[in-house]
Amino acid sequence: MSKKKLSFEESMTRLEQIVRAMERGDVALEESLKLFQEGTELVKNCQKLLDDATLQVKQIMTAPDGSPVEEEFQDEP
Question: Is residue 67 left, alpha or beta, with left meaning phi > 0 and alpha meaning psi from -120 to 50?
């Protein structure tokens, strides 16, 4: 896997591929370790992207007086 920054969706797709490969159980130990390491890096990338997106949403939301407003996201029933 190249060192370029992947999008959230690309990272999730690659993580799914890694999980499927490891669940099959036909991957050698050395390759499993490499896949595990790659997977942990992908998880870190996804978490950073989610944290950045959360920060952007918080920055966008403002009260009528211009002060920041932080609200919990609520799913509609």
Answer: beta
